[in-house]
Records
---
Amino acid sequence: MVELSRRQAIEDVASDLFREHGYAGTSIRDIARALSVQGASLYAHVTSKEEVLWAIVDRAAARFEAAADLAEVDAEARRPGDPAEAFAALVRAHVAVLTADVDEASVFVHEWRALGPEHRRAILERRDAYQDRFRGRIEDGMAVGTFAMTDPSIAASTILSAVNGVAGWYDPNGRLPAERIADHLVDLSMRMLLNA
Amino acid sequence: MVELSRRQAIEDVASDLFREHGYAGTSIRDIARALSVQGASLYAHVTSKEEVLWAIVDRAAARFEAAADLAEVDAEARRPGDPAEAFAALVRAHVAVLTADVDEASVFVHEWRALGPEHRRAILERRDAYQDRFRGRIEDGMAVGTFAMTDPSIAASTILSAVNGVAGWYDPNGRLPAERIADHLVDLSMRMLLNA
DNA sequence: TGGCTAGCCTAACGATCGTTAGTTAGGGCG
DNA sequence: CGCCCTAACTAACGATCGTTAGGCTAGCCA
């Protein structure tokens, strides 16, 4: 574990603690203790507690967005106009980001409620836009008959909830490597959608 | 909204606030303010803040357990030995409890982390046992060929995450009645499992 | 050698936390 | 009337919260 910058180290342990005890359940002094430092010392690197939360959530959101961008480009290059391929790529990319840093991703999934009104609104907008990408691909697949009829909004929301559930039990040192987990989630997601 | 007892009213507003801001993010005085009462006044009805959380979580857990009991008996009466019927009944019962009191159910789903060590352990045990009921039915279905091969543990956990996601967007005054939502979730869950 | 910088320290601020103690107001009932 | 019960009150406790201010130290570079 190389420590790139002090600021990064703070966000790393904050992610861990926010995930375990929540934002409100974690004090500045808790974060400092994990770094063997006094609470007040953190303010040399950070302007407020909420700024730390926002940095984590914003970075996680950006990771999900960038991974989805790349996944859609890749899928289009491999099998142009294939909604099943595109959707599977989205799910696989999502699992990859989720498992690459479970702490960060869990904070993104659960702790956005603790953000102030403007940051909260901003992240909800981005979350909606992200969910719309999934929904759009489902609609594409329904239009060409690849996917069975269903409510695309509910399906997108349900699949994202299902995939995010991985954050609750994934263990980087566990039995299953991240890619096998992604295989399972892609499989289960596609079964929900594909026409029999 | 009939107020059965003062204690019940406290747990109701506590469920609402815990769901919105989390346990740690909600103070005793916040709960009291929602009841137009001083913070200290609550201690005539309650012994501690955590006791309130435990009461909510324990009651919600009991509701899910009782609904699953009934669902399994019903399914067995309707179509004895049919794993698909049994599993569908479990999912439908889960959605019914979830939508009957979203606040309470959301607190159960998200805030068990805030419980003390012994309550936390107890609720995790019950959650595991509950999840095992879903997993067991999946294994039954796989054994007789009704359900397609998959990892039953991952499937159970994923389906429960998917269904719990409903707590994030269900609106009792919304467009979709709870039973139509249950229809969707049963449909999506069964598609994940059924052999094509 | 001297200064710059990064990183940490101690001390303290006002606010808020969960909780306890003791008291008061009002309604039902003997 | 007097009694009790329910439900609220005010006041305060010690602890902890996020945050600010100001000072110290060790390493690097000129």
Note: Chain A has eight helices and no strands.
---
Amino acid sequence: MTNIRDLAKMAGVSVTTVSRVLNNHPYVSADKRNAILVAIKQSNYQPNINAVHLSMGKTFLVGVVVPFIDHPYFALLMKGMATEALENNYKLVLFQTNYLETREIEALQMLKQKQIDALIICSRTSSWPTIEAYLPYGPIILCEDTRGKKVSSTFVDHYKSFMFALEYLYQKGHRQIGYCIGRISGTNSKQREMAFKNFVTNYQLAYEPAYIFEHCRHFEDGEQVIELVGQMANPPSALLVTSDEVAAGIVTCAQNRNISIPGDLALIGFNNQPISKMMNITTIEIPLVDIGRKLFLQAIDTDEEAAYQEIPVQLIERETV
Amino acid sequence: MTNIRDLAKMAGVSVTTVSRVLNNHPYVSADKRNAILVAIKQSNYQPNINAVHLSMGKTFLVGVVVPFIDHPYFALLMKGMATEALENNYKLVLFQTNYLETREIEALQMLKQKQIDALIICSRTSSWPTIEAYLPYGPIILCEDTRGKKVSSTFVDHYKSFMFALEYLYQKGHRQIGYCIGRISGTNSKQREMAFKNFVTNYQLAYEPAYIFEHCRHFEDGEQVIELVGQMANPPSALLVTSDEVAAGIVTCAQNRNISIPGDLALIGFNNQPISKMMNITTIEIPLVDIGRKLFLQAIDTDEEAAYQEIPVQLIERETV
DNA sequence: TTGTAAGCGTTATCAA
DNA sequence: TTGATAACGCTTACAA
């Protein structure tokens, strides 16, 4: 493998000059630049990335923490991040945590050890103070509302959008509303819970804990929901379902049991995934790929200031309400 | 950040000795080793990974080429690879190609440039000679039958399993059989096509090109299939569907149009994803996560010899045949 | 506009 | 069993 010194020799210049043209720095005469360019072509030169990294103290690696990679929500975020990473000559290092705190800490440790330049946490289980302790070691980007904290984020105001969806259902006449969610802990989930509770009290409805269904992540989890709803003496008339996949599962299962949707049970999904279009599911569109791109861009942004990007969402009315 | 030289000073030894204990090399006296260990503890030392990489000429990075990351088939492979990478202290670098050859070449170039230690290609669009040209630069692992070629692979014999499924349908009385697939090009798809053609001639059935449905990747693609089947004067009575998600989409869509499954149309899915269990879809189980793990292990295997791991599959009988 | 030389933090060779 | 010291290939003061 030819290196920068070989190039210098070939072009009859110093390594510094070679480095200059390699990095597009000014102050190189046209003829020397050309000579070097020719040498690069001829030798099929490829810079040694490790040497660059060592010298610059940068890795061009960005860590990405996701609980599961095989979940459409995170896969879509990943898609956006991967696209942007490629364009910016960065690579993504994957941390699949299964929501194990130890795994998240491993990722944070890698930041501390300078093995990655920045860390994007798409969803976390560790507490804020835990994260905060690693802030001095490099940028940490979150996918949740961090306004007031000293970390950048791209996020959806889940309180607002949940409240919006709930009020929409209320206007359609629903008074017994529940929701399905992946997990009840987590910042975003807490925001939604808060919206739900406030909604219930604002509209003087009964707060019914049984109307909250946890562990709803995949299509097949819809079965459980229908099961549970079917057993209730006083079932909900409408459900907010925080993933279109789950909503689709609910619709499918409901059909098999002759439960009419939206007649017996109205549904609002989230994300506007293709499956929701096919199955005509009313949904709140969340531009996940775009959020992924923005998260990545924040990760490599060298600005010291924390930036907060709120992403607006949009109701797509279809046939499940 | 304290470095190896600081440690040496603290422990009153040379950097060589420090490096020795860091890497568990022999020939270090117990007391010096202890002194160094103490220094490491006290200073909270973390090795500079870039320096290690430069010195060793290794990156501990493995590239992964997938056409789409937001597809369960590849997400499941990724899950397996990510798990194993973590355990072996490697990181995964993602290449999302959208089946663009240029993207695959970028990944191959990174191998050539030593920016990654090995490359796993889960699905490709480039020709074999293209790949072959990069073989001298590092291990390339494929997820397709490479027996006879000088590259390692973990794969399913798609010819065999397709033939098995086709004969199973034949025994159940089906004579008009078709299949749904993501794309018709690609090694694995070609194997399946070959099985299909041989099956048809072996059993003296008509080869009906219209029974082959391309672009079937996601749940929502099932709609197209039902659409097309509905328009046929002489529709297939059974379909092999190379992804359970698509099979689920077909089942869902069929229900809406009062097409009885398996009465009007029998279905065999592939992969045994959770969705197939929920929807009672007969399927060929493919252990994708496990395949992912094995692919990764092959990538970091230092053996020169190419290894070929055939993964057996298994029919899961449920209610769509 | 150009070049010399000093890092960056390791590993590995070789001599002691 | 140890330690100088030379790589590894690049960037970047600093000097000219």
Note: The CA atoms of residues 53 and 59 of chain A lie 5 Å apart.
---
Amino acid sequence: MKIDPNSSADLSAQIAQAIRDAIVDGKLIVDERLPSEAEMADQFNVSRPTVREALKRLAAQSLIRTQRGATGGAFVNRLSFPDAYAQQITTSTLLLSMNAVSFDTACEARYALERACAPLSSQRRTADHLATMRAEIHRQQQPGLTDEAFCDSDVAFHRALVDGAQNPVLSYQLAGAVEGMQPLMNMITFTARSRNQIVSLHTAIADALERREAAAVDDTLKELSEYTQSLARDVMAKRAR
Amino acid sequence: MKIDPNSSADLSAQIAQAIRDAIVDGKLIVDERLPSEAEMADQFNVSRPTVREALKRLAAQSLIRTQRGATGGAFVNRLSFPDAYAQQITTSTLLLSMNAVSFDTACEARYALERACAPLSSQRRTADHLATMRAEIHRQQQPGLTDEAFCDSDVAFHRALVDGAQNPVLSYQLAGAVEGMQPLMNMITFTARSRNQIVSLHTAIADALERREAAAVDDTLKELSEYTQSLARDVMAKRAR
DNA sequence: AGACTTTTAAATGTCTGACAAATAGAAAAG
DNA sequence: CTTTTCTATTTGTCAGACATTTAAAAGTCT
């Protein structure tokens, strides 16, 4: 592992990249201990603060963890699904909020991905998944619910639908698509009428899933997608006036 | 923005989180300049190196960029699609390589998501997308091609298919699913026969896409998914002996 | 000998102060 | 008015120090 001291890039960025490459390429394996900060400073011919900045970059991506004390140090971290979820959601949220992505585009992506889960979820969903969905539907019918709480419940409902596919990789990918859209969804004001419409579609989805009818789930999701987009268009139109 | 000096967490991690929250919540907007490192050190009552470690954490997630010089400083970065791609791919790759995710699970997720793009891509693909796919098919038929180069071309082919949907959010999400699987795919040895089979399926997909027949694309993708999984099972079986 | 306490060494976390390098704007020179 | 030079600001890097945490080694008592 070498760095170029004459490069225009920051030394800490170069060091971080070198270590990152080593991890991705499997030269450093999970739970392996990196040399101590002082040793690395020697190796790379830089100071300890520079090495530390590099390590903090890696820690921010959950690639390493550090431990203090006698047998401490920096260790290659096993990237867990929850860690990956969290990063994925932050990235997706910012990507959508900072890049003038239209609601339609985001919505289309979300429902396209979600519909990909429908056949698998129909096959494999457990009673648990179904119970979660029913519970969320019930919550969505509470009268005093704020728009935000309604959206939270909506996310939880769709989460259960996705998790029903019993494929952690799929759940991980979808986490970004579904939760990243929440800030956009929160801009919509849900009237009593639109809530009822959504609840009835959710119920239709849950019913179809209970009967394990993939095609019906897919159709209803499509309907829900179109309804959501029409709601968003109404909000935009009102805001334009 | 406040931090708790008595918390067990690192000061730099706390500071990074405080700034990250401010960005996600929209309290800091794109291209806004953060205070200088010295000023932040004062504000948070910590030293400059500690502030710097916090900033490097944020830089690692592409949340900020820094500039040297008189009017320099740290600026909230607009998270670009390419940046988001890169992060997604690193995360997905590591998630798959470190977590004993079965080839079947990853493959299922990948093709489920890809099939979600098929209808959109059938509608919207341009001549360019089709040309890219044809070119990659041609490349896949070169005799001297290494397994790795074959996989690269495979990724490029599927990339074009996904991009054909003309939905950047979908492309971003799929980047992780498709490219993250590459290391797993690279473990497969592609015999001349299996390459021919894959090429013929790719050709069928391109043909169907040319005719804009979504259902045919979907069917062929399903076939390809099953064939890929059967190849992987053969490799596993051979390795077991 | 065995269990408990103390010491010690190694590592990360943090601070201070300094200098280098880049950069934009102000000041000076032509 | 244009070009050059200077200057102030800010990030990048370094060196050395001390604080804190932690596990293992050494020591002590029963």
Note: The radius of gyration of chain A is 23 Å.
---
Amino acid sequence: MAFTPLDPLLHNQLRLAIVSLLVSVEEGDFNFLLEKTGSTRGNLSVQITKLKEAGYISVNKGYKDNYPNTACAITYQGIRAFEAYVAAIKGYLNTGA
Amino acid sequence: MAFTPLDPLLHNQLRLAIVSLLVSVEEGDFNFLLEKTGSTRGNLSVQITKLKEAGYISVNKGYKDNYPNTACAITYQGIRAFEAYVAAIKGYLNTGA
DNA sequence: GAATATAGTTTATGTTACAAACAAGTCTAT
DNA sequence: ATAGACTTGTTTGTAACATAAACTATATTC
């Protein structure tokens, strides 16, 4: 039971929340993530960009009811990374022998 | 299933590993933690200090075989914090509905 | 057409994580 | 007894990070 390194990209509260949401939902726009995470828009914007640059999510910028709309979806790579993170961190949470 | 804030002190790979180890062992010295975590001494020293200042662990500096020996043990407060962290992060790891 | 609202980005700043350099003492061999 | 290597930690310097405030751009309302 070693301490597997934790993906630094996912080991962040907001980014982990984003990915966790997108894994369940498979499609979520900026406001959805904003509301669900309780983040600020600035922080959300930054972290979405980072996840996108890492290839963990895809970002589709379009319009909805005349307003800009940023739709995010998790990628296969993102799912894999999330699953690996979940498996890894469990090694840290074991209290029992 | 909201996203409970994660204790920033525990949401760090090395500190989480330290606390996780001490929860199981109830007594671990510097070298024990060094070996188990695979950390560097510098980083370990810093994080032990932070955990101590937060009251999550107690640090007992003595000597063992003539050499300095830093014995660490988890406090009640540390156990509580760890348990809260474990409960909190599980809210981020749930993939299923 | 001015004011306000929406949707998001850029920037500025303080904080953090980390390892290299340092410090203080101990052992060994000569 | 002292030089050199080892042990056990601490301090410090730097780069990366997290975050919110300030900003941009367009849309709606009055």
Note: The first strand of chain B starts at residue 28 and ends at 29.
